[in-house]
Design goal:
heterodimer, A: mainly alpha, AhpD-like, 2 domains, globular, B: alpha+beta, Alpha-Beta Plaits, 8-stranded mixed beta sheet, 7 helices, 51% helix
Amino acid sequence: MAAHALADVEWDACVLEPLRRPELEAEVRRRFGTLPTSVPYLASVPWVVRSMTDTSLFGAPPLSIPTELAELIGLVVSQDNSCRYCFGITRMMMRVYGMSEKQIGKLEQNFLDAEIDPRSKAALDFSRRLSRAAPRVQSSDVLALVAAGFTREEILEIAFFAVQSVYMNRLMTVSAIPFGPAERLGNSRMIRWVAPLMRRRMNQLIRRARERSGALEAPAAPVPWGFVARAFRGTTAARKLHETLAGAFESSVLGARAKGLIFAVVARGLDCSRSEREAGELLHANGFDDGRIETVLTHLGSPDLDELEAELVPFARGTIRGRPVQLQQRTGALVARFGSERTVEAIAIAALANAVCRLGAVTELE
Amino acid sequence: MSAALGLLLAALAVGFALLWLRAQRSTGRARTRLAAASAELERLEHAFARFAPMELVERVIASGVPTSGERKEVTVLFADLVAFTPLSQSLDPSALVRVLNGYFERMSRAITAHQGHISTLIGDGILALFGALESNPWQTNDAVAAALAMRRELAAYNDELAASGLPKLALGVGVHRGTGIAGLVGSSELMQFTVVGNVVSVAARVQALTREHGVDVLVTAAAKQALDPRFQLRALPPAALKGIAEPVATFALLD
């Protein structure tokens, strides 16, 4: 029954070249306890694969909210973003954590009528608003969480897991990662029998991640959008956000200017002024003045852009609110012109921009 | 005596068991119907999100139709078929419906592919909105790109019509940008999310002006101001529009 919730969502074939990297795969297995089927498709850019483990429950585990709530957030945001891959995975996780097929089905079919406690409902409602960003979250949305009894750290973790889903949903959707194995796992009847073992293993991995989490603040080294990571002090997300941003901006597959442009477009589309200023600073440092930035952002193009940038700017815009199949067709065109490696990094930077700009909007409310 | 009592108790037990089984079956059927209805509601909710903002759809489901409106900066695209009345009189009804549905299908594809949504179909006319469902800083570029896509779609459709021995269609499009009131408008029996105000009237009248100027797509000065200069436009002499004091300057959209 549950597969029906996204059964109508069109999904193109993945055009990214799968790549085997044994060392990277071993690293992922250590963290996840398994190798997700998406890894080979994204392995051409190692920081992208690391970001998947780093920002997951097994890299940045929640300290204040229950793990089940973090998973529930993943489920509703993935459904909202029509990500068939993430939806299958989170369905499986929910079942491992003891939610019945019937309860999950009810939640998928009608969130408004689902039998969940008011506190969780408030958290899920906020997560969907943050993900949709139409309009972007307001102070009143945060105050609704405060009224439901959530602390500052809990609110930060709710926001983090909502945008972690925004990030993963775009990564999987725009890449058109085959969803078959994930969907089969989510629907498998076998889960009921192996759930206790899987739950034990996952709890063990999460416990280890908590022990490893170290200081609950972002490192002092400057990194673009470091203000977002710093705002998450008191949670395991602070350091992992910082590391993911550092990995993204240290990578040389795409130039800094291309990355700045992608972030600037997403920030403009989501109406996030703080992130747009940050993108502006990055672009200034790479030879773009205010006038040229404004031309690009007003019309999503400019004669000043090189061939790749001229494609990436409208591509980035599409990732803000596009339908999966439309995004996947654009991805196919990018791979054909610029190859898998640059396309994977472009997808990941756009996904990261969508996540970080949404978080940036939350930090503006503080 | 005790045997009779035993029989009576057994009969009662069987009776209760049968009733319980029937109730269980009936509950099961009701549950299945409820699950199907819930699934349908979820599908409808997502389908409605193509016509109204998702938050608004949820508010309607949770607490009824809100009566409030919101002032919004939008770009309106108004499209109409040229000389459709004589065409409708010359075609038989089933051919006419087929031609019209094929036209709407293609125009709808061009509009939604450029982040627009169709608010209303008025006869053969289309009222499409850009930036109404969610804020969109690129709404005017999207609307004009949609107009170009509509032109291309219509050319391809005309080839198909000609191959079937049917008459070709001609299109008039007006694009205008301004502020309107967005909200759910209508009666309790028919309600739609739309934008009302001068911005819609101007787009409709500019569309009508395409006949006078002999062009297919006209853009107002307000829309041009927000438009990417890479779109090629040709200035036309200002013209008086019904209900608007000053003559309105318009620009023809080139290829």
